[in-house]
Design brief:
By secondary structure, this protein is α/β, with parallel strands linked by helices. It folds into two domains: 90 residues, Elongation Factor Tu (Ef-tu), domain 3, CATH 2.40.30.10; 117 residues, Rossmann fold (3-Layer(aba) Sandwich), CATH 3.40.50.80. The chain is 15% helix and 34% strand. Strand 2 and strand 3 form a beta hairpin. It is globular. Bound molecules: flavin-adenine dinucleotide.
């Protein structure tokens, strides 16, 4: 299988009016913005600020490279400064988008020779959503770790045979336990490119487990959220 990747894209600053805030759970939501001429490579992130506010935060792009709109998937962090403000944005509110940034994209050198295993915790699924939607023929396995099965954000967007839900606090999933425990118990093809995204505890534990399984650092790409 050959995946045609886009060449490097430049960094832009754009002011956009919010089109929609769609709630997926009580505290997780998708923000939809116009895309206009904004170009990015699946896996990259933007820096976002709200009109009249001096702070900004990074968010992985959730939507596909060629989608009509630009989307991000956000969890409202209790006591956080920025994410609760995002949640309360209304249609028509103005936000400032910088980017795209980052190199957390598919490894083009391994696209034919390797399997792609995506390992996400929580909203760390966002860049993988963009990759899967951008490259419909991609041979991937997505392992998603959350606490409760309700956090399987839009799982219907993925091929059911390629998506594994790991829940640590309920049993309504494919695997009852942490995503790291699933990885520990799973055998992977030796030609696998791993992509890890989410919180640092999960990522560092997963990297240790993969190292113990014989995968070197070059096999593992990481995007740490916090
Ligand atoms: C490259 C990059 C991409 C990111 N992409 C996303 C994304 O797609 N979706 C997303 O929701 N967040 C993403 N984040 C995290 C995001 O930038 C903010 O840190 C998050 O929204 C919290 O901001 P806040 O101002 O509400 O919290 P702050 O007031 O800044 O408090 C920060 C604290 O919130 C906690 N925290 C941060 N993010 C999360 C989270 N997702 N879940 C639970 N606790 C968290 C941490 O413990 C951190 O110490 C990304 C971060 C980076 C560096």
């Amino acid at each position: 299988m050959t995946i045609q990747m886009k060449p490097e894209v430049g960094i832009n600053t754009n002011y956009y009016k919010v089109l929609e805030i769609k709630n997926l759970t009580e505290n997780t939501f998708v923000v939809t913005l116009p895309k206009s001429r904004f170009k990015f490579i699946a896996g990259q992130h933007i820096s976002l600020s709200i009109e009249g506010d001096y702070q900004s935060r990074e968010y992985s792009i959730y939507s596909a490279e060629e989608a009509e709109h630009l989307e991000i998937l956000v969890k409202e962090v209790e006591g956080g400064y920025f994410s609760p403000k995002l949640k309360h944005l209304k249609k028509g509110d103005l936000v400032e988008v910088h980017g795209p940034f980052g190199k957390f994209g598919l490894d083009t050198k391994k696209q034919v020779t390797h399997k792609h295993v995506f390992i996400a915790s929580g909203t760390g699924i966002a860049p993988f959503h963009s990759m899967v939607k951008s490259y419909p023929n991609l041979d991937y396995q997505l392992i998603h770790g959350v606490r409760y099965s309700v956090e399987a954000y839009e799982r219907e967007h993925y091929d059911a045979a390629r998506y594994v839900l790991c829940t640590s606090r309920d049993t309504n999933s494919d695997f009852n336990g942490r995503v790291t425990e699933y990885i520990r118990q799973t055998a992977f093809d030796k030609n696998t490119a791993f992509y890890l995204c989410g919180n640092s505890d999960m990522i560092f534990d997963a990297m240790e487990i993969l190292k113990d399984k014989g995968f070197d650092r070059d096999s593992v790409n990481v995007e740490v959220y916090f």
